[in-house]
Amino acid sequence: xxxxxxxxxxxxxxxxxxxxxxxxxxxxxxxxxxxxxxxxxxxxxxxxxxxxxxxxxxxxxxxxxxxxxxxxxxxxxxxxxxxxxxxxxxxxxxxxxxxxxxxxxxxxxxxxxxxxxxxxx
Length: 121
Known about the structure:
Layout: E1 29-30, H1 38-53, H2 56-59, E2 63-67, E3 85-89, H3 91-107, E4 115-116
Antiparallel strand pairs: 1-4, 2-3
């Protein structure tokens, strides 16, 4: 997560400055639970873009991860002015993070359209 709020050459899209919602901006992320809409569109957009940006050898054994999360209305499909990040990551870390995010949503009862912020120590 911390990497998502910092610029790296391996990021896509390659912008020098971003105002990604849910991090250091004054606008929160909002949860998307309707799997016929935002989450599926975010996944499709991520899966469309990643092979265009990285070579198959760079994606081998990796999963393309996105921030804001695919389970938000602010993910890659809906991102304003490319204010999102994509990066190939280790599948076990990606799965572990997804599980942790699910626990967060359940523990704090984050429902459809509920706002939340991401704070990285």
